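Figure S4 source data
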Amino acid sequence: MTDYEPIKMAEVVKIEDTGDELTMIFQDNRTLKIKIVDGKLVSEFV
């Protein structure tokens, strides 16, 4: 499981919705991508 501690209480700078994926950009250019794959919610923290 991904550790979300680095973005805890971080300010969201921008949210992008491409239709099949939601991207949240936080301060310090940290990115969280969320999408549905095979009926399950999948997230990737970069």
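Figure S5 source data
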Amino acid sequence: MNKFTTVFAVVSAVFLAAACNKSETPVAESGERTVSYTVSFPQTKATLGNGEAVNYVWYALYNEQGRLLMEYAPQPVNADGKAECKVTMMFDQNYKVVFVGQHYEVAGELKTPAFAIDAAKAEVQMPLAAKANSDNYDLFTYVDQVSNYQGGNGKDVSLTRILAQVNFFCTADDWTNAAALSMTPTASSMQLASVPSRYNVLTGIASTQTVTVEYAKNALTPDANLLGTAFCLAGENLTATLNLFKGDELTTTRTVSNVPAQLNYRTNITGQIMTGSMNYTISINPTGTDQNKPLN
């Protein structure tokens, strides 16, 4: 009986020691964890004043080589101008997380983006038809490079505009002369030719293939003699056409060639647009008035 008691005591001591050792040994983290990204935008995203252009953020997870692992449902931009995007990652892995913020037309459960997204290629596509004088065609992206993921539950990121903006402005004299001739415009449409057709968010490179984009007629709210504005992917030598309307009547059509468009900058075509001999200048971000500053 004493021998049995001794053996039992020894076995119990061994199990107790093992349990103590197990509880004192740190366990390496493994498996997966969900990271909550808080996505924000530049303060100047509402370039035309309505402040509601970007209403959803699309995002996707890629591996180190750029292969799509997971595409997520677009998340709404909240009243504070931010979106919450959750991504699940495995420990010790490398990732690229792509975010695209833009305007979605919402009809019931259907959400249609202004710029179509090819998730497998991480590309946004320039629409062939858009609307003039609208900031619903603004576009922002960001790529978060994650190396050897070791945990962490939250991260803040700010997206960057990847478009150019082409604007037609008239001079003060041109506006006065047009008013005297009862030609003050109420709406305009535009066309931009030689616009890059796609933009790869992972590489930051626009396609060499180009398209012509038709920007439908939209109302004008005269501001600093602005006659027409349109967002597009940046290209070196665009051709820009402006159509001016007074009510339903087409009053003026002007075309300008060799128009440069630089990512995140305004290109301003300024001059005697409505009256006179169409004298104009083209400028990209010279120092001076607010209309010539970078978009961001």
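The helical segments are 2-24, 172-180. The CA atoms of residues 186 and 247 lie 6 Å apart.
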